[in-house]
Amino acid sequence: MYLFRPTLAARHASERSCLPSGTGARTAARVRSSLACLFLFVAFASLRVYGQAATPSTPNSRVQGSSAQNVQEPAPLQTQGPLPSPVQQRASGQTSSVPQSAAIMGTVTDVNGEPVPGATVTLQGAVPGQRRTATTNGDGFFEIDDILSGIPFHVTVSAEGFAKWKSSVTLQPGEPDILTDIKLHLEELRTTVIVSPETTRQIATEQVRTELKQRGLGVIPNFYEAFESHPAPLTPKLKFTLALKDLTDPITVAGVGLLAGVGQAGGGLSYEDGAEGFGQRFSTNYYNQITDIMIGGAILPIVLHQDPRYFYQATGSKFSRVLHALSAVFIAKGDNGHWQPNYSSLGGDLASSAISNLYYPPRDRGVGLIFENFGVETGVHMGVRLLQEFVFRPGAAKNLLSFARRRRHPLRLAARR
User: Fold this and answer.
1) Best label site of 61, 291, 300, 373, fewest CB within 10 Å?
2) Helix (H, G, I), strand (E, B) or coil at 247
């Protein structure tokens, strides 16, 4: 554009100055007019050239001339449509650079197929930040969502009283991955030591300290059961400790009273009715407990160097476990670790039955009573061994409470499933 233009008045003034007023005057006027016009033209041209040089060039400007080149503007970006889903990408062979989320679920059980509630499931990736945890519900079920797919994770399942279960998994986006065969085994006590009398006694003392806290279904004393596969042999002091603790436990005393009440209602033995007869039956039953536990659980095991405890099998078929439980009445483990006839238990039952002739009513005494009580005591011990193998195991109380809650709220369980 132009920065300077001569005004119309200047043009008229120049034209008037060029009018003739004589020959010389006309010539001089023409010269002056020509010079003025030339001066104005030069000034006008200079200003125009200077204005073009001062104007900045842009990428879209065009340079005219023989060497002029057209600068094309960049084409606008095209808008892409929605990204394909992970299923469509896998079907077409395409992969997305954005990590897709995945999920994992499963059910934790023990070796018998019973659910393990309260177990902790941990997923650990390659870096510390890739860590997720979950806790199983009353049915042993767990689920973890929003996990990065395509990354290997280490899965660890742990629960109190059980050995850890470990595995590795790489999750894929889409349907949740279901972990199967998560079966927890009982944790075994494994200690590597230099065996000496002192260290053996210390290990056995710690084992007994743990066994004195064991209760079947959380209530019934279960002091004579060892869950370790290779426990340390008991000292004479520890064998007496187990026997005295079993005899003085409040649940044992309450059980003796219950048996006395049943005998009072059924009319067993030749005792009187009323409170006096109940007291006599209570004393008789408690004496039976004292002689049976002290002789079969402490005195004979000390003399014969046998272990009075029951050793939990846990694995194998149900039939093999039943045989193991029933045979424990007739086969015991010696303090040397070898299996041998269970003289302690059978001898304790027989001795207790024989001693009962000293305080039973005269009309109920005799050789027949001895063998009758011996058979009853042996049968009771066989039933207790079955309870120890299948009912009085770790976590049984939690599973029973979980089963009771499911039976109490069937509609809620069905809705959750």
Assistant:
1) 61
2) helix
Tokens found for residue 208: 């007994």
Distances 232 to 72, 118, 189 between C-alpha atoms, Å: 91, 30, 10
Distance, CA of 371 to CA of 350 (rounded, Å): 8
The DSSP H or E segment spanning 122 is: strand 120-124
Distance of alpha carbon 181 from alpha carbon 164, whole angstroms: 13
CA–chain centroid gap for 393, Å, is 21
Q: Are 50 and 37 in contact (CB under 8 A)?
A: no
The set of residues, in sequence order, having a beta carbon less than 8 Å from that of 19 and lying 6+ positions away, is: 26, 29
| Tokens (6 digits) for 37 | 């016009």
Check: CB of residue 246 under 8 Å from CB of residue 224. Answer: yes
Beta bridge partners of 154: 124, 168
Question: What per-residue confidence (pLDDT) applies to 67?
Answer: 40
With residue 220 as reference, give the H or E element that holds it: strand 220-221
CATH topology for the 99-184 domain? Immunoglobulin-like (2.60.40)
Encoding tokens for residue 107? 């059910």
Tell me the pTM.
Answer: 0.54
Query: Domain extents for the chain?
Result: 99-184, 197-393
Q: Is the pLDDT of residue 55 over 50?
A: no
